[in-house]
Amino acid sequence: MAERLEAEARRQALGGLPGWTVVQGRDAIGKTFVFKDFNEAFGFMARVALVAEKMDHHPEWRNVYKTVEVVLATHDAGGVTALDIELAKAMNAIAKLTPG
Ligand code: H2B
Q: What is the architecture, at CATH level 2, of domain 7-97?
């Protein structure tokens, strides 16, 4: 099972992840993605869902119109692991591919 990242390792990993921050009150990271419209937001979610399923690592997220609020944590480990960093990187890459 993936190990929880220590605070310093997590801080360092977040340095390479534009827009991602530590979530207040729990061991998790988060980012709010804002797209052009609902179509772009949902397209992003659909692409991410395929990656998440392949990784067997799934986001906590909430969509309101063109905004997608994402929280990543590894539930089995009770905190942030390398899997969350990997999924966050994939999300940033997919968001860049999404026009708008
Ligand atoms: N997603 C996340 N974010 N954390 C997990 O610990 C996790 C998961 N565990 N997706 C996976 C599924 C596990 O429940 C299955 C059985 O592999």
A: 2-Layer Sandwich (3.30)
